[in-house]
Fold this sequence. Notes:
The structure holds two protein chains of two kinds. Chain A is an alpha/beta fold.
Amino acid sequence: VGKSARALIEGNAALLILREAAPASPCIANLATEFLKRRLPVITSVAGGPHARQSSGETGHVIDRPRNSAFYATSLHVLLRDLDVQTLILAGGVTSVSVHYTFVDAHQFDYFCRVVEDSTSGSSAQAQEAALQAMEYMQTGARRNLCAVVAALNDHE
Amino acid sequence: MTMSEPLAPRRALIVGKPALLVIDVQGNCMAPAHDPARNFPMPDYSDYMRRVPALIAAARSHQIPIVYMQEVHHPSLIDFGRELDGFENVHCLESDPDNDISREADRRPGDFWVRKRRYSSFFATDLEIILGGLKARTLLMVGGFTDVCVHYTFADAHQRGYVCRVVEDCVAGSTQAAHDAALAAMQYLQLDSRCVRDELIAAL
């Protein structure tokens, strides 16, 4: 009964990292490097206000996030349209709140959405799995791992 | 203090002015609809929906505004966005009278009726204008699916600062597990958000 998944990347891809005060993990920083070296957009959505934003040092676009979803009351959708992005790849945390609700908004704005399931964390094991299942319910093939994303970037070149 | 005690005193069930949000109570959802082949929606879905009309009647008798949300899609399918990329098939075509607000939900002239083409009741709809005009502060949510339209309406209402209440015996999900997980997720956003119908009717 299940549908087959679409390609991991449809059109142009961007990486969206969700984080709070702490910098993104080394694993996510490495993934960002993979995007940047191919001149693909990397956007970091930061909760916690200007202090949290300045304490990092990430390259790429940085957008404050006043609520759970990276789209709510932010310029993210405008930026993504300017960048001509169709596929949004999500990493960071926390999975069951910011990642989940950002995915929902991206889905409702018609983006192809993927979540890097081994690069998203912060929830209880139960809430993490429920959120990942909810994302897979919305888009078959939404759950992908780091290796698959890097392989898709290579194939897409 | 023991670990079983709540972290903060429970807030009143209704804070400020309430509005009842009846989410996607459409067609014959009061009749059994479980498809064993897809295991969808949750087996006793219609039992949950049949509890909704009594709450609507109670809200009406207390002059609480009722907002009926209706999911619609155009028969050309151009407005589905990414909705057919996942588990769901074509649904809620506006050309099919079987997708009207359920007769049992008793929508009357003077009630509010908002159509939506996405999961969240707030996404590109008139809802915020209506709630602003009503000066509603607490949103009482019933309908389905718990894990999709109800959960994502709740998350959007939460981000907009509303006090959110989900009536857990008047919402039903795509599966039992997804229903349970969504209720837990809503409780994570607002600790006091879960209530049951008869407790709510008593509080009206």
